[in-house]
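Instructor's aside before we start: the two examples that follow are unrelated to each other. I chose them only because their records fit on one page, so don't look for a connection. First example below.
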Amino acid sequence: MPEDRDWEVYKVPPTRTPVYERTTSVPNPATFFQTVFNYVVDAPVTFVREWIERQQNKNKFYYYHQKFRRVPDLSECLEGDYLCFFEAEAQWRRDRMVDQEIVEIVRERLGACKLREGPNQFQNCAKEVEQLAQVTKAYQDRYGDLGVHGNARTCLMKQKHRMMEERKAQANASQ
């Protein structure tokens, strides 16, 4: 900067800022209402919320890791034990949903691999294609041809018929 400054144009700010002094002895009503609100409404609500959070942190419960106990299969239920039939049916439905999600996850992995690899997908995604084929075949063997109204009993009968056909084929092959 040049040495010959014009002090009138470039005024220097004051070295000390003046302190605001109250001119009245009446308190500010906004400050009063804010303090009353903090003590009457905000403090109790905050205290209760923090207490609840402390209690919840002591007893953590993870909903997404719920584990059901395995119930007996439908073939292990006694005749006329309707509660066992109901539990086996519920277990079968859970197993079917889990198997559907497994197929969906493997399918998504294959799609991601194909998207990631582009034109090289046939060489680099062969493992995922094989895994999807295995998972789909296993799902089809167990739940295929049951339809929308499939249940544990029809699935068990399907498995029984498949086992009988395999035994017939083994017996015919050995003769």
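Example two begins here.
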Amino acid sequence: MASGGLQLLGFVLAFLGWIGIIISTAMPQWKMASYAGDNIVTAQALYEGLWMSCAMQSTGQIQCKVYDSLLKLEGNLQATRALMVAAILLGLVGLFVAVTGMKCMKCMEDDQVKKMRMAVFGGVIFIISGLAALVATSWYGNRVARAFYDPFTPVNTRFEFGSALFIGWAASSLAILGGSFLCCSCPRRETSYPPTRGYPKNASSTGKDYV
């Protein structure tokens, strides 16, 4: 029962991490910057994501623009996109594989060993998905930090970490943790003990019984 609870907990954490990776990928707040001119009315917040850039005025109006051409984007941004999309697809595959191996499901009930191995395989896929998202978000965050501390970067164009990065870091950690819990349900090999040797019974005394 304990392994079943750990398996269920791992699946829930991995599923929440996968949902968080999707949300982080879709959000435009991967990096943000605020700019205020001479008048506070002209203040605006700038956001940039993997798919679009947005500007929010002080009045609350938000204007977003999708990136026009894929070929005009930086190679680092394209690589980050590819890693996040790969993390989502891997998480989807891991979701179906892990569901098949869950003890609460009726699939493959005849062979419990293969069923548990499916859960472990799904956990491995979730771990790879979380690592892909973690590499993408950390790589993007490193570029933002380097540009922020670069003395040649204009003050008005210095970006900071956006909320999508923090969501991506948390989601990738959940996916890795959940996948690790699923891997803990790996079937243990039965220890083969040497056959016990039968000892001969005590031979009855051959001597005469004395009355």
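Residues 190-196 have pLDDT under 50 and may be disordered.
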